[in-house]
Design a protein that fits this description.
This protein is mainly α. It folds into two domains: 1-62, Orthogonal Bundle (Arc Repressor Mutant, subunit A), CATH 1.10.10.60; 73-200, Orthogonal Bundle (Tetracycline Repressor, domain 2), CATH 1.10.357. The protein is built from nine helices and no strands. The protein has helices at residues 22-36, 43-50, 54-60, 64-81, 93-110, 112-124, 129-150, 157-178, 185-200.
Length: 204
């Protein structure tokens, strides 16, 4: 399988190097971002870890800034895509809520790097306007999805919005606290139960 045409017009793909894809580079970048934030992201470091020269990098990206932008775009796209996995389906509200909470909290606890990347993106968004824009898009989509659940519990739009925001903030906070803990299933179940009880108490 041949490499796609270089985006930068800088010439041919360096000979004798593995045929890496953009995703290979972005996956490696995720490891660096998770380990030390965006300030830890260096092209030469990535090239060494992938066993290639920097010439391979320029086959896929214009420069370091293009790498960062591409990484952020992929982060946004994946976060929006995964919403489908815990989208309310219109069934029993309590059953759906508890299933959603279980997916959010249990999955986050077992995927430390995912949370590390999310926290790094949010930290970077404090200093970078484009990152801030994408974080805002992801937050809005997640909160909007919460609204579809609360709309079945309340007819007050403001109340629906406020409780959707509160549940989102509580879920993110719970992920931060619980991620990485092993053998603490009781704590996770208790948090899920507390959040479910708070939500269901809003039913009119």
């Amino acid at each position: 399988m041949t490499e796609p045409k270089a985006q930068t017009g800088r010439g041919r793909k360096p000979s004798g190097t593995p045929q890496l894809t953009r995703d290979n580079w972005l996956d490696a970048a995720a490891g660096e971002v998770a380990a030390g934030g965006f300030g830890h992201l260096r092209v030469l470091t990535l090239a060494k870890k992938l066993g290639v020269t920097r010439g391979s990098f320029y086959w896929h990206f214009r420069d370091h800034g293009d790498l960062v932008t591409s990484f952020l775009d992929r982060w946004r796209d994946r976060r929006l895509h995964e919403l489908q996995y815990w989208k309310p389906q219109g069934g029993d509200v309590e059953a759906e809520l508890r299933k959603i909470l279980d997916l959010l909290l249990s999955d986050a606890r077992g995927n430390i790097r995912r949370l590390q990347v999310e926290l790094a993106v949010r930290d970077f968004a404090r200093r970078d306007d484009y990152a801030a824009e994408l974080v805002t898009q992801v937050d809005a989509a997640r909160i909007s999805q919460n609204c579809t659940l609360f709309q079945r519990l309340s007819s007050d739009p403001e109340r629906v919005r406020d409780m959707s925001l509160l549940l989102y903030v509580a879920t993110i906070g719970s992920q931060v606290v619980l991620t990485g803990k092993k053998g603490d299933e009781d704590a996770i179940r208790r948090v899920e139960d507390l959040l479910a009880r708070v939500v269901l108490a809003q039913e009119e």
